[in-house]
Amino acid sequence: MITGTPKPIEEIMEMVEPYDNIILAGCHGCVTVCRVGGEKEVQVLASTLRLAREAGGRTIKIREVSLERQCDPEYVEQMRPYVGDYQAVLSIACGAGIQFLAEKFTTTPLLPGINTGFLGVTERQGEWSERCQGCGDCVLHLTGGICPVTRCAKSLFHGPCGGSVQGICEVDKSVKCGWQLIIDRLKALNQMENYTKFKPFKGWSTARDGGPRRIIREDMI
Amino acid sequence: MTGILQTQSGNGEHPTAAVLVIGGGISGMQSALDLANAGMKVYLVESSPAIGGKMAQLDKTFPTNDCSMCIVSPKLVEVGRHRNIKLFTHSEVKSLTGDAGRFTATLVRHARYVDVGACTGCGLCEIVCPVTQISHFPAPPAEGEKKTRARAKEKRIIRGPGLPQPTRSQKWNFSVDNSLCGMCGGCFKACLHGAVSWEKKQVAVIDQEKCTGCGACFVACPEKFSAIAIGQAADLEKSVGAAVHARSQLLKKEFKGTGQRDCIRCGLCVITCDKVMNISALKMVEEGIEAGVDICQVCGACVSVCPVNFLAIDQVTNKVPRPLLNSFNEGLNGRKPVNIFYPQAVPRVPVIDEESCVRLNSGACGTCASICGVGAIHYDHREEETEIAIGSVIFSPGIEVFDARIRGEFGYGLYKNVVTSIEFERLLSASGPTSGTVARPGDAKHPKKIAWIQCVGSRDHSCDRDYCSSVCCMYATKEAFIAREHDSSIEPTIFYIDMRSFGKNFDDYVTRAKDHKVRFVRAMVSRIFEDPISGDLELRYVDGSGARKTEMFDMVVLSVGIQVPKASKELAGKLDIDLDRYGFVVTDCYRPLATSRPGIFVSGAVKGPKDIPETVCEASAAAEAASASLAEARGSLITAEVLPPERVIDPEEGLRIGVFICHCGTNIASVVDVEAVTEYAKTLPGVVYAEHPLYTCSQDSQERMREIIKDNRLNRVVTSACSPTTHEPLFMSTLQQAGLNKYFFDMANIRDQCSWVHPDDPVLATEKAKRLTRMAVANATAGQPLAEQEFTVDARLLVVGGGVAGMTAALEAARQGFGVFLVEREGQLGGQLLQLQRSSDGRKFADFLGGLKEKVLNNELIKVFTSSEVVEQSGFVGSFETEIVTPSGGTRTLKHGAILVATGAEEHRPEIHGLGTLNTVMTQTDFEAALENATSKDWQHLRVVMLQCAGSRDVDHLPYCSRVCCNHAVKNARRLKSMHPEARIDVLYRDMRCYGLAELDYSRARREGINFVRYDPEENPLQITAEEAGIEITVVDPSVRLPVRFHPDLLVLSTGMKPRDAEELASMLRVPRNSNGFFIEAHAKLRPVDLPSEGLFMAGTAHGPKSSTESITQAQAAVARAATLLSRDSMKMSAIVSVVDPTHCAVCLTCVRACPYGVPFINDQHSAEINPALCQGCGICVAECPAKTIHLGRYGDKNIRAKIEAYSAS
């Protein structure tokens, strides 16, 4: 799931300052599940903005919308009939959704209401952590199901660095050393030979280093 | 086997399916509810004017700090409203004849002087009653003699700092009725303002210009003429007393805060004394008020009507005033003779006190009857006797606190700032005499240092209170804790002997209190001295080091013990049941609820000191015990409600809203202009009918409402009245009786939120009432009819665990007529009790278990599955399905209506001090078994050290107290000593937690020569070496303050109890367990054997460590709770349940995680789903759902929005 955190209300207030008539768009996808951009957050944020603006002596008209997903054109198109009636769209979907709206509605300014986080999992209600950086070349079968790209702060590929102390990463005391986790898991799985197996250097061209990426599935087109 | 309730066979020889419950405290109420909800008729007799008992007096409850009143008041209301509970308050049991199954009881209902049926509980009578003292009533005239008024011989003039300043405010108009005037001139002489002109043989004339309206003329006019007429006096048509009250209230408001100290010559005191009280001891004179101090009856009326506090009671009389004290507030403040016992009382109906009421004693006054809007006051009430037929009796009259005056060294009764713990509860209580402000009774100052002294009237042979009162350690800790919550500058200190925090989570509570700066000092205070000037108190004690200490405190709270009141002992005598020497009811440890007389059962602290949850548990258990033998006649004496078919409202039908704005006597109407609110309501959209009944809740108003709904074809109803908590169910049932869906209703609380809180601003209060009414109308407009689904109940019970709790439960459920499945994991029944040897009274457990097992196995209603385990569970209350694996490896599906978890606990066996490796080290259980076979002469001079809390109350092992070990050690030590008097036993302990009557055995043990040496793991740790070569233990003995060394032959460890593994079962049943693995009850105080999910109950040590007797009690309690479900043919699900609209469900799991009852799940349609039968309707998922796709009955956004919009609209 793509995770995110709400932007501070002051920042959003500043963004919408020039406008009196906007759309606030939520998304029923990931951001609903991680509780930053669903139907409820749309209603809460809209009410907050109205109250804050009224407190400042100005009103703001907000149309509350929640799309099934902001990253699919069919759903995005549902907004087209009325988007022109508004001065701006404040989206609380992930960065992909917001950009997609901006791309589709070229004459309307798009404002981000959340800070998009990472591809992660729910540890428990209210706590998420990162698991995948989308490097495009998965090695989890060799590393006990623990990703060295994401879980190691340096994305090392051949074991821990000198900053690993008693299983804790030097970057932050709350971060476990990814390689310690990998080794512990490999030992438990009796797969330590994977650790010593020769691995050639990783090609990062399939990751972000290769520039913006595209996936084309010929079989589906 | 059959799961169906046995129906009555036709021979007519059935027991009476009714139970008499004596005592309306929490115990009696719980018994009554469990019985009535399981098809038994209940007669609940309470000697005080209202039910509630001691619990209603408490401020908060340990260990959760829940407000006592808040948690008990729903029970009060439920008992009060229950159609199958007949309440006899202010009543007593006179006699009981007959035998079990067919008793006849004679009940005496003392004269209440207020009609319980007619009274609406508005409290106006109490407000207008002017009497505050117990009067010295004039002697009644001798027979044949005419009643004459006494004339004052001793007169005293009461003066203010200045001369009287006559007021004309709110003045009454006095005039002379020419036709009646006797021309005597009395009025002329009485008038101090020269307003009356009169000449001999002439009619008097009052000059209205000069008249100040003091009424001196009115009082002076002889009764035979009664020629002075009064005009413009509000409420005069009711009575003079009512009119005096009305003017007094207005003047009080006017003079409030003006600092007026001189007499305002309103004349109300004089008029009251003469015209209302018929005494005439007061007279207005130039300098002030002249009081005939010898004829004053000291009723206090003049003082209470005086608008400016000019008069004081001790000025107007030469007698000693006897203030009428509020017993509910432990005498900390005053009350009126007509008095509602406490604000939340059920029934909320006053009683008139025969000792102090003027009307009942002298025939004067009668103000309360004149003001009562429903004519509920009847001075001619007499005591009434009623005979009732019952099958069983539950004796639960409760307890009183020890009279602290007996411990004279603490100065209670002499030193004002020494209070008892129950008085302190009232001081903490928001509804108490200080409205929850912690203030010293002596000078109302806020105390800073407060000391609690434990064991006052407990564990004390000198005043014949040898037993431990069980609750004081915890309530003192709670009071100290809460006092600091009220005022964080308070420094509490608790002086104690042993900290007996033996219950579930109690030790954690004490630790929390310590973290909140509650200081605990292990010392007994020897004396208190009062500083007569400051009122501060000097405490003297000897501390742990042996040093004599003196310490000053601002206030002292005596933790008084509990005892059986004399009246209860007398009643027990009438009922012919055996008591012990302290008055506690004697029971058998295997039949803990049965008294010595068959058919009479006992519950609560009258059977031995205990706290609320134990009392509630016993109450349920007593209900079970009392009804088991009556089960065949179940349902034969109860009445069921019959409702007309519900009118289907056509969606096209326009809104037809009826609005009822309640006067509540004058409770609302004296502040809020109800007529204006009614007129306003008529203008609201959809409202077709509005009226303003005097009492909307009264019987006749409710009947009228039903007619109005029908005649006007109303489809929504709104009442603006009092609290929905107490009255919404009543109005909703009226809607149902009128054939309207009950959810087409809403209620605005214009009493608590308008008239009560804004008495000084009637205009704004009225505006607020309009606004609240508007919101309620908007909400009713948005209302939807909700349906309550009905389903049939399977009358069988699944019991998981075949120990003593499980077997007892199975057997009792079968006696109640329910089919039982008893599933036990082990190969044989018996559980942990198989490991133990003897009960507290020395009988062998094996004999008891043998008998129990035989009965279980031979009962045709019980199906036993040994070596079997629950593997899957589904369904909901009334209709569960459980799959078990049987020894053959096959599975079986059991269908049943309720589940009882009795998975038990086992002895903890930590590898400490050589346990398991040395044969000289053993647990108490091992030792008990060894004792059984110890005929060996080697044991004659055996040296034994028993180590308490070995692996208990220890974060590295069991962090909690196991409750039973102290008693276990005392039992085993005494047994060894009785077998081998030469043996030496030393018990090393931290706190001897021999709670309740077990204290008696502990003191016997000490007398028998068993040594008890206290250690402390931090301050006075033990040095233990246990090896093959021998055992050596060193510790400082605090009693001699020297190190001592033991070389025992045996080291016996009291290791405590740990729950058996029930993790899988708990997750299958979706019920929570605490961090120690014990199941968590639905409510720590009031639902001790219920699990949080409906239809699930628990008993025995699965809940927490406890003795076998306590486990038996819990088993019976759990069966009583289950019987309230299983005895029904069908059940209705609440209509207020969460419903998921799958269209927008993001399957985000938020509801699944948020639900405290574990109800939502993701179904195979990829949507969250909530089973309406399991949903508790709390609304948490609704609020949390990020897709806003969960809806809850009448609490939808639509409703809330309607209310908010109506609020903000002008």
Q: What is the helix fraction of residues of chain B, given as a range? A: 25-40%
- Helical stretch tally of chain B: 31
By CATH, the superfamily of the largest domain in chain A comes out as Response regulator
Largest interface: A-B, 15 and 13 residues
Placed side by side, the strands forming the largest sheet of chain B appear as 5-2-1-18-29
Question: Mind telling me the CATH superfamily name of the domain at 18-110 and 386-398 and 565-633 in chain B?
Answer: FAD/NAD(P)-binding domain
Structural class computed from helices and strand pairing of chain A: alpha/beta
Helix fraction bin of chain A: 25-40%
Strand order of the largest sheet of chain A: 3-2-4-5
Report the count of strand segments of chain A.
7
Average pLDDT score of chain B: 93
Instruction: Give the class of chain B from helix and strand content and strand pairing.
Output: alpha/beta
Distance between the terminal alpha carbons of chain A, to the nearest Å?
25 Å
Provide the low-confidence segments of chain B as ranges: 1-11
User: Which CATH C-level class of the largest domain in chain A is it?
Assistant: Alpha Beta
What's the gyration radius of chain B in Å?
35 Å
N-to-C terminal Cα separation of chain B, in Å?
68 Å
Q: What is the total tally of β strands of chain B?
A: 57
Written account of the structure:
The complex is a heterodimer of chains A (221) and B (1210). Chain A is 31% helix and 19% strand. By secondary structure, chain A is an alpha/beta fold. Chain A folds into two domains: 2-118, Response regulator (Rossmann fold), CATH 3.40.50; 138-201, no CATH class. In chain A, a hairpin with a 2-residue loop joins strand 6 (114-124) and strand 7. The radius of gyration of chain A is 22 Å and the shape is elongated. Chain B has 1210 residues and is an alpha/beta fold. Chain B is built from 31 helices and 57 strands. Chain B has a five-stranded parallel β-sheet with strand order 5-2-1-18-29. In chain B, strands 20-27-21-22-23 form a five-stranded parallel β-sheet. Chain B has a five-stranded parallel β-sheet with strand order 37-36-35-41-52. At the A-B interface, helix 3 of A face helix 29 of B.
